[in-house]
Amino acid sequence: MNKNKLLTFAIICSLHFCSTSSKFIESIKNHDEQTVFKMLNEDPTLISARDKNGNSSLHYAVATSDDNLLIGLLKKNPNVNVQNNAGFSPAHVAAQRQNVNALKLLFQAGANFEIKSNEGSTPLLTAVFRQAGPSVKFLIETVKVNPNVIDKDGSTPLIYAIYKSYTEIALYLIEHGADYTLKDRDGISPLFEAASRGNLAVVKTLIQLKAPIDDQMSKGFTPLHNAIAFGKSEIAELLIENGASVNLSNRDGLNAVLFACANGNLPILEKVLKFGGSLNSQDTKKRTPLHFAASNGHLPIVTFLLSNGANLHVRDLNGKTPYDLAFEKQNKNLYDILKP
């Protein structure tokens, strides 16, 4: 047989396999057990069939939640850790779909539950991200997976849960060994994330556990900074009352006083001052509390600052007074009170 004939024969075989494997995969998707196992008996290599995205027969069997089909396929000794083009294994699929029966069957078949996708996600991380509580519980309590596994960004299951505001899962993870001091690659801790998201229940729990309250992320922001910046007043007060520093500054020199003035939060400003904050605070651009309040049009804050001795004439690094900033932003309600 010459080379051209061999090539033609190879192409025909390839097309036949593609056609057959497609029919095989479709039969799984349609729960057609009779056809699936008839085809497997005729061609055992179909157990390794994949679609264009790299999904295998096991991926589809798990996705269809067909236990009998999955049991039958597992008896054919397939690769239980087969990964699709995105790096997801059948265990990932089962975890995200809350298919605990499939997780049990894969566990009994020896599946690797620490396997990572292309983005570094394990079945546990995937389950948390999809709010699949039953999967999380099975993976933690039965499989005993690592609760502190990290993805490519350094995020843990706990950080995932807090980021997605899945309070019940977050508290469950904390109760079952999640390390609440671990940070992601940007220096974001669970407490920082919880304060930013306004998750009071998680913040209270972490404070009770003595989580580092002043942990600064890579840009110098603290949990208190973000609680104030995002208007989470109850959390800001809780952090202050439990020892959060009101004088720590971020990379730009912004501290709790400046954040409170920028956001027009007078009750928090008063709280910060009560716990040692300074009205003489300035950021790296020499902007004072009055500059921030004036720029954002916060009349009650401006009035409070002036009544407590704030200097109208201080200029920032650009030579601008609080009045100049109010004028630039057209905050006309402040013109008279700020005019030198």
UniProtKB/TrEMBL annotation:
Keywords: ANK repeat, Repeat. Pfam families: Ank_2 (PF12796), Ank_4 (PF13637). The lineage of its organism: Bacteria, Pseudomonadati, Spirochaetota, Spirochaetia, Leptospirales. The keyword rRNA processing does not apply. InterPro entries: Ankyrin_rpt, Ankyrin_rpt-contain_sf. This is Ankyrin repeat domain-containing protein. ANK repeats lie at residues 53-85, 86-118, 153-185, 186-218, 219-251, 252-284, 285-317. It comes from Leptospira barantonii. SUPFAM superfamilies: Ankyrin repeat.
